[in-house]
Design goal:
This protein is α/β, with parallel strands linked by helices. The mean pLDDT is about 95. The longest helix has 19 residues, at about 80-100. Helix 5 (about 120-130) links the parallel strand 4 and strand 5 (about 135). It contains 12 helices and 11 strands. A 6-stranded antiparallel sheet has the order 6-7-9-8-10-11, sandwiched between helices. A 5-stranded parallel sheet has the order 3-2-1-4-5, with helices on both faces. It has 2 domains: about 5-190, HUPs (Rossmann fold, 3-Layer(aba) Sandwich), CATH 3.40.50; about 220-320, no CATH class.
Amino acid sequence: MSVTGIALVSGGLDSICAVKVLQEQGVNIIGIAFETPFFGAGRARKVAEEIGIPLVVLTITDDHLAMLRAPRYGYGKNLNPCIDCHILMVKKAGDIMKERGGDFVSTGEVLGQRPMSQGKQSLHIVASRSGYDGYVLRPLSARLLPATIPEKEGRVDRERLLDIRGRSRKRQLAMAAHYGITSYSSPAGGCLLTDPVFARRMRDLFAQRGGMETRDIELLKTGRHLRLSDDIKIIVGRKEGENKILEHLAEGRDSIIWMRDFPGPTVLVPGGCGDDAVVRAAAICALYSDAPADEEVVALCRRDDSSFPVTVTAAVKDEVSRLII
């Protein structure tokens, strides 16, 4: 009897161990990973290649953003909607399962490892709300959870699944040594929505923008962000690499400011701004440049395919600090 599992693969040790447990029973594994502006599939690609499984990578940005605005089960410590995110991923994996004639969806979740998203009730919610209740198998904790349909049907031997619980990773580390697994990501995860600074910027974006584009989110990852008013934000490059990213992401409607005579940052005003805001942004550009603090200096502003000079004195640091998002 040929059995196929669609396994969520993050690149972390738990998801690798879950795959290995199933492979020991002869289950054919198709890996699946997801990409959004908040997390990528690079680590999953590397792991899938190392353990020799095919990997499907889905970009779920639109669905993820729609969910992120108002997650049914709320946010974690920052802006991470872990339960709703898992529901979305398991649903997408279940759709692949149906499309490819698979038998179940597998995840690397461990009962009790994360208080918000991996309690028994949360695991049940994820399975039921995904639309694939009964077909979501957690190999590392399966014997502590209700039997799934593939277990009841004998497609997977429940006695050969595991009963791991809690935050300790001793058993997973022992499994890694047993299987010769040396390359895996840390359990901290790679989702930007768990980062407090990024989450604060994302909340600000939600508050100021009705809709948003991928570029808006990419800009959140770069530079120092300051809000001048409800409708004007500026982004200040902190090093040469960030200056280049801001210049690359700039669009025709934006305002771009830099110092004429001194090394300093690129300042981007997404969506552009009027003359008064240009002067304020140029003064902030001067503050973070090598320009003298108490002398008039010249900044250049590019807007609508034309450039013009702006003479300013560097802004006061304490006043600017209050504008930082």
